[in-house]
């Protein structure tokens, strides 16, 4: 039995004396996609469908009556079979009628469907999604022509009779109709998968083309609606922008997509050229997305300190964030971590009070033994640390900083940074700026200081 928890709760609330009977419908209706039959039975009739051993839908179902019939339920079974027949006949009619038109032929009709008062029609939206998807495909090395085709047809099932009856089937019916039209399998799959993830914990698109179209769809929504002032406020999020942002973040991290987030924003922003009401809101959108990223990472078990250390750098490569967090977690286990984090915090405070400090120093200007010791230790550590960072071994890169603990502690114990001699002061500030730059390549470790 197919028993959705929501349907079970609803039916339980509808009856006082539940009695379960089984009934059937004509097998010819099994030619209609099972998603349509399930929604018809569940939403309209409150029936529980039955699958066979292989998980395939059968023409039998369960119904719950509020009476224990004297005839064993024969009349109830027959009556419900008659009622569901009419419902399924409607579904079959919608399905047969929809297939008389190709998805391609429906695309121009989207010009008559309003998407948003300031952003135009669904056709204009599809053109933007297509442009964004094609550019992302080029960035990721995905087949551009097939990606464009999938994006162009992604919303073509919206005017169909079946989606009009069951809006939940948008994308699902598009896949079936694309298959009927003979479209390539990756195109058909992308039409369904580009809506994913539809909710928290939902599966991500599996195919690369599906990913490109899904990213384009969500980016167009986020960038466009932020650009016309439709930002979420408090609890209100009528356009599900939080869900769209989380979907983008999950795809970039879990699928390890090697593209900078600001690059994707630019691709999406360029698609709105010529839209009079659109004004770029990248700064606000970035803050919105990073806030979603904070929440997502906290849900994955990372501490507030660990998350903030990574987010403070405003990472552009979201795909590398899990590696950065793993590195931060490993770094925190080192005995030198707390001391280095505290020193980094102290360096940050010193540099904040100084004007623009060049990240450079002259070892010939070192006077104190402690600053000479730190300069030598840093010069020894830096090449190896940078090499590890470039290779993507973030954990090893942070661990390579451990030898700096003793010379850093000694420097702050014995050296005055803000001395009167301007040249000497600038050189010491430059040493600290260089040290901070290397220490904070993976994460702002000052955020790890208690």
Head-to-tail CA distance between termini: 55 Å
Counted by DSSP, the helix tally is 20
Quaternary class: single chain
Structural class by sheet pairing and helices = mainly alpha
Summarize the biggest pleated sheet. 3 strands, antiparallel
The fraction of residues assigned to DSSP E strands is 5-15%
The helix/strand series, from N terminus to C terminus, equals HEHEEHHEEHHHHHHHHHHHHHHHH
- Strand order in the largest sheet: 1-3-2
Shape: elongated
Number of strands: 5
List the uncertain runs.
Answer: none
**Helical content band:** 55-70%
Radius of gyration equals: 30 Å
What would the average pLDDT be, to the nearest integer?
94
List the helices and strands and how they pair.
Elements lengths: L4 H10 L4 E6 L9 H11 L3 E4 L5 E9 L8 H25 L4 H4 L7 E3 L3 E2 H19 L3 H10 L7 H5 L6 H9 L4 H9 L14 H20 L13 H14 L6 H10 L11 H18 L4 H8 L9 H12 L4 H17 L15 H22 L3 H6 L5 H10 L7 H18 L11
Antiparallel strand pairs: 1-3, 2-3, 4-5
Overview features:
single chain; three-stranded antiparallel sheet; 450 residues; mainly alpha; 5 strands; 20 helices
Walkthrough of the structure:
The protein has 450 residues and is mostly helical. The chain has 20 helices and five strands. A hairpin with a 5-residue loop joins strand 2 (48-51) and strand 3 (57-65). The longest helix has 25 residues, at 74-98. The radius of gyration is 30 Å and the shape is elongated.
